[in-house]
Design brief:
18 helices; Maf protein; single chain; six-stranded mixed beta sheet; 485 residues
């Protein structure tokens, strides 16, 4: 039994939606179901219109009534319908029906699939643009287990009919990519926007699973979403599973730390631990509804030119080993990050940072693109329930510890700095470890690269062992062994 597409010619240019649907329809082995809820049946409509759909579509349905939907797919614990668990339940249920109702003896070559979406389009008042979950479960060999691609979308259009059409195009791209581009996951990801403008829809989470994707790192796929301009921020947890930011941040208190984490050092973790202690002492902060985020900007990942994916995964591996959630964003300016958080929560937000980062916040050159300049940026930054926790910097020449009290900003920024400093928007982290303030990630990285000794003591417990065992950041046992001789 051959895997699909052998002998098929690749289409050099981006094929139209009709051509994609027709190519699938004309493949005699692809056969499956469509279950679409919330935005019409726009995906399956494209297959009907393309012609030859009887060889592809086993069933098309849409259970809009909640009682009908619950009777078919069961009731979710949270009683919500536009959720990832709901989508996965739909995909699994439809595949079970196909396997139950179609004989493998009669159809030994068939490659079954189920496509599903559950979405909420823009509301009547147009103050909620809508979002949804889209996925496909599919086979590439009748004897193999199923593969799955699940993604979350946020609509950008302000017309329900246009959102439906956009969803229909995305659905065809997803099914086509699943069968014809599964061996090139990065290209498959980009193909979701074939015949679509990027400003029509945002994809802010994706997960690949199954035998054909066992070597796909979903954290790397998250990075691709930001890199390709499909979204501005993605998250993954300590186990490397991609998370939906909107779900993780909803009505949460947020403590965010921005850094290169290349690698994560004792200073990074001391800043986190001291900041967390302060944060949990805030009267409005509830530990059970608090989200801690270690954030890396795309600009930081590009600091040496093109993004080095191995380097990104090295950083992610260490942060995950420390049990932290990681966010990758396209927000170079802090006020944009705060605006993003504010989409999901009105609770207390804190940015924990070092002196160097605070100096950059008060640098006017970062706000020249704003008509209101730095004042507009600060209005956006501090308008929300935001505080800055400042971690000190040790002056390498004088040995002085620089805090918010001793920090010198540009003379033009002095009064603005005082205003925010003495209005309770900044708080010094005081219970820090002065013995580690000479530790810098860039120096540790250089020591690792050059095979120097002593870098292990600059990192949190267990991190050096991971670097050595997995040979992260260019670590080479051979280089260190030669030096020992």
């Amino acid at each position: 039994m051959s895997v699909i597409l052998k002998g098929d010619k690749e289409i050099e240019n981006i094929p139209s939606i009709k051509r994609k649907a027709l190519r699938i329809n004309l493949n005699e082995n692809i056969y499956g179901t469509f279950a679409e809820i919330g935005a019409g049946q726009e995906t399956v409509r494209n297959f009907f219109r393309a012609g030859g759909a009887s060889g592809t579509i086993a069933k098309a349905m849409s259970a809009y009534d909640k009682d009908f939907s619950d009777a078919i797919y069961g009731i979710e614990p949270d009683k919500r319908y536009v959720t990832q668990p709901r989508l996965k339940r739909m995909l699994a249920h439809e595949i079970e029906l196909i396997e139950d109702r179609l004989s493998r003896t009669k159809h030994p070559e068939k490659l079954f699939f189920s496509y599903a979406n559950t979405v909420a389009t823009i509301n009547f008042a147009k103050n909620f643009k809508g979002h949804g979950w889209v996925g496909v479960r599919f086979q590439l060999d009748p004897l193999e287990d199923y593969n799955e691609i699940v993604l979350h979308i946020r609509f950008r259009q302000t017309d329900a009919r246009l959102q439906q059409e956009t969803l229909g195009v995305l659905g065809v791209n997803l099914i086509y990519g699943a069968f014809y581009m599964n061996d090139r996951p990065k290209e498959l990801l980009r193909s979701f926007y074939d015949n679509l403008d990027h400003d029509l829809i945002e994809i802010d989470m994706i997960n690949f699973s199954g035998p054909r994707f066992m070597y796909v790192d979903n954290r790397l796929m998250s990075l691709q979403l930001v890199k390709n301009g499909m979204t501005d921020a993605v998250m993954f947890d300590a186990n490397g599973n991609n998370l939906l930011p909107a779900h993780q941040l909803y009505k949460k208190n947020i403590l965010a730390l921005r850094g290169s984490f290349r690698p994560v050092t004792k200073v990074n973790m001391d800043m986190f631990e001291r900041a967390q202690e302060l944060f949990l002492k805030e009267k409005t902060v509830d530990k059970e509804h608090t989200e801690v985020i270690f954030e890396i900007t795309l600009a930081n990942l590009r600091s040496e030119g093109e993004i080095n994916e191995r380097d990104f995964l090295d950083r992610a591996e260490l942060l995950c080993s420390l049990g932290q959630n990681v966010m990758i964003t396209n927000f170079q300016e802090y006020y944009k990050l705060v605006e993003y958080f504010s989409e999901f929560t009105k609770a207390r937000m804190v940015l924990a940072m070092g002196v160097y980062n605070l100096v950059q916040i008060f640098d006017e050159k970062y706000y020249r693109h704003l008509s209101g300049g730095i004042l507009e940026a600060f209005g956006k930054l501090f308008f929300k329930d935001l505080k800055i926790y400042l971690y000190p910097l040790k002056d390498q020449e004088s040995g002085e510890f620089i805090t918010s009290e001793t920090l010198k900003v540009h003379p033009r920024m002095k009064e603005l700095y005082k205003f925010f400093k003495y209005n309770g928007k900044m708080l010094d982290i005081k219970d820090y470890d002065p013995e580690i303030l000479d530790v810098f990630s860039r120096n540790v990285l250089q020591m690792i690269a050059e095979g120097q000794e002593g870098w292990e003591e600059m990192l949190p417990q267990g991190i050096s062992d991971i670097i050595k065992e997995q040979r992260l950041f260019g670590y080479s046992r051979r280089r260190f062994a030669k030096q020992d001789k």
